[in-house]
Write a structure and sequence with these properties.
This protein is mainly α. Helix content is about 65%, strand content about 0%. It is built from twelve helices and no strands.
Length: about 280
Amino acid sequence: MPRPFPPLEAVPLAEQHGQSFVRLVELMQRLRAPDGCAWDREQTLESLRRYVIEEAHEVVDAIDGGDKNELRSELGDLLFQVVFQAEVAREQGDFGPDDVIKAIIDKLVRRHPHLFADEAPADAPVSSADVLERWEKIKARERGNQGLLESVPRGMPALLRAQRVGEKVERVGFDWPDTAGSRAKVAEELGELDEAIAAGDPAAISEELGDTLFALVNLARHVHVDAEAALRATIVKFTTRFAHVEQRVRDQHGGWGEGDNAVSLAQMDVYWNEAKQKK
């Protein structure tokens, strides 16, 4: 027998303090109840993993697209995944949604002693760089003997993970002192990649290509560029330009064609250059 779930009343922005969060938890528990949704009841922490990743990527897409309504929707989807995981864990007797919130609040307060301690520390940070340095020091104390790089999630996209690894080691001084050193490393790795390609060694090519990509990410960090965002922007640009090529091929040739009737690369380059001019 269906049980209606009363809708939320709109709350003015100035009066929003997260008071509606409890309703999302209530809804999640209703979905997982014995008379709830069969699909929701079947889910596990493991089965939900893909949705956490998917929703996080959709949030990034919404940010890149600049659509605030879409971002609001996608943030809701991501928040639902957090609540979903927490509810599954609560049912298993591990932790619940309130434990999740308590954990992040405790962590943020602990890592901002210059704001929340009884007395401001003598080395209280004055810039964002100081804050990050102090954050890492506090984090290191909390983690004890854990390796510096063990806190970087292995499931991160590779470019993002590489940049986070570089940031971590930079904070303990294991880094090129300037951009020139990082740029020279890129040239060195490209030379080694060329040698591997010339030798025709697939394993060496793979290794040297990885080294080159890692060096490029480090260069991006030195010039204050987000490597992941830069590549995403380039993919969007390429996709947009190729869509123009594809449309021109359909309009002028009726399709890509095959064999001797295939659209030539030279002709596609003409359409590609048209796309570049469109901006």
